[in-house]
Amino acid sequence: DEEMKTAWIVTGGLVLITVTALLVGDQLIALGSLTGLVGWLGGNANGKKSES
């Protein structure tokens, strides 16, 4: 499923950015990517719920 693959790529990318930012001690980037990740996952969950 193409939509699912995109979701995994975006999620994985954001997690990777967050981890990297935390490792180099850049809390601003980590916070930004975490916020994006939460927003992305929240938006996905809402989109899937409203479809059914």
Descriptive report:
The protein is mainly alpha-helical. It has one domain (2-47). It has 2 helices and no strands. Helix 1 runs antiparallel to helix 2. The longest helix has 25 residues, at 27-51. The relative contact order is 0.13. The model has no long low-confidence stretch (mean pLDDT 86).
Give keywords.
transmembrane helix; elongated; mainly alpha; membrane; 52 residues; 2 helices
Short recap of the structure:
This protein is an all-alpha fold. The chain has helices at 2-23, 27-51. The chain has one domain.
Q: Topology, pairings included?
A:
Elements (H helix, E strand, L loop, with lengths): L1 H22 L3 H25 L1
Helix pairs in contact: 1-2
Keywords: Membrane, Transmembrane, Transmembrane helix
Low-confidence stretches: none
Distance between the termini: 17 Å
Strand content: under 5%
Largest sheet: none
Name the helicity range. Answer: over 70%
Look at the structure and give the mean pLDDT: 86
Cα gyration radius (Å): 13 Å
Total domain count? 1
Q: How many DSSP helices?
A: 2
Tertiary shape: elongated
Pattern of helices and strands:
HH
